[in-house]
């Protein structure tokens, strides 16, 4: 059942040596393409990184060497208005994509397509992991795989045969995310402490990498200062000017 598959997701960071074939990758990507896309622009591209040296360098730049070198397939999930520029030129038109709206559309398109790919992979028994670390050095990674104007990496996605099964990490309760008619922040006073305890119990009892931590502690630490402050400059160089 699809819903049960979705609820069983856990990130996989350790894979067996098996590499995905071209046929397997094509099947996953074709399924991914059937995600919803704003106004049918399909403002995304995938770079499948198979070259060992490029994968090694990608691991260094993203600070995820084990994932990038050990996965069965490594994908760079990219926002892409370059292809749309070519479509415009076919009609003797110059397209505009330097507004903030275009950036939102492209990133949303990438996210929907990537999640379709992830779900398709998991339906085949593969494990997956998103790699936000590709934003650690977006310009160098863009140069590594030759991304032109209008194209930038949003995240990586690794796929492969899991070396071990990971336990499912408990999410926030539905009540914390679902608001009816109006946004209700008052309920966080009760729900967040309860969720902190749920996650603390999970970390203490899981099979490996046990620790003592709560969700609010982790989020406060993670978000207490700016991160990846060069991103605005990099995407601006790609033509996304936030107009």
TrEMBL record:
<comment type="similarity">
    <text>Belongs to the flavin oxidoreductase frp family.</text>
</comment>
<dbReference type="InterPro" id="IPR016446">
    <property type="entry name" value="Flavin_OxRdtase_Frp"/>
</dbReference>
<keyword id="KW-0288">FMN</keyword>
<dbReference type="GO" id="GO:0016491">
    <property type="term" value="F:oxidoreductase activity"/>
</dbReference>
<dbReference type="InterPro" id="IPR029479">
    <property type="entry name" value="Nitroreductase"/>
</dbReference>
<dbReference type="InterPro" id="IPR000415">
    <property type="entry name" value="Nitroreductase-like"/>
</dbReference>
<protein>
    <submittedName>
        <fullName>NADPH-dependent oxidoreductase</fullName>
    </submittedName>
</protein>
<dbReference type="Pfam" id="PF00881">
    <property type="entry name" value="Nitroreductase"/>
</dbReference>
<keyword id="KW-0285">Flavoprotein</keyword>
<keyword id="KW-0560">Oxidoreductase</keyword>
<feature type="domain" description="Nitroreductase">
    <location>
        <begin position="7"/>
        <end position="160"/>
    </location>
</feature>
<keyword id="KW-0521">NADP</keyword>
């Amino acid at each position: 059942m699809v819903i049960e598959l979705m609820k069983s997701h856990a990130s996989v960071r350790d894979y067996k040596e098996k590499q995905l074939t071209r046929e397997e990758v094509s099947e996953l990507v074709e399924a991914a393409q059937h995600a919803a896309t704003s106004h049918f622009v399909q403002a995304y591209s995938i770079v499948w990184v198979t070259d060992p040296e490029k994968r090694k360098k990608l691991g260094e730049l993203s600070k995820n060497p084990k994932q990038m070198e050990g996965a069965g397939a490594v994908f760079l999930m990219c926002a892409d208005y370059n292809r749309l520029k070519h479509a415009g030129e076919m009609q003797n038109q110059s397209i505009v994509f330097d507004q903030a709206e275009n950036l939102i559309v492209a990133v949303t398109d990438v996210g929907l397509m990537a999640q379709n790919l992830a779900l398709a992979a998991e339906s085949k028994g593969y494990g997956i992991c998103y790699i936000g670390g590709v934003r650690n050095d977006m310009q160098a990674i863009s140069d590594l795989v030759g991304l032109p104007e209008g194209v930038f990496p949003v995240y990586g996605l690794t796929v492969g045969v899991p070396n071990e099964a990971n336990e499912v990490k408990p999410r926030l309760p539905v009540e914390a995310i679902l608001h009816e008619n109006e946004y209700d922040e008052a309920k966080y006073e009760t729900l967040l402490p309860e969720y902190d305890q749920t996650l603390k119990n999970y970390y203490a009892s899981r099979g490996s990498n046990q620790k003592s931590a709560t969700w609010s502690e982790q989020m406060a630490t993670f978000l207490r200062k700016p991160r990846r402050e060069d991103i605005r400059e990099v995407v601006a160089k790609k033509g996304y000017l936030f107009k």
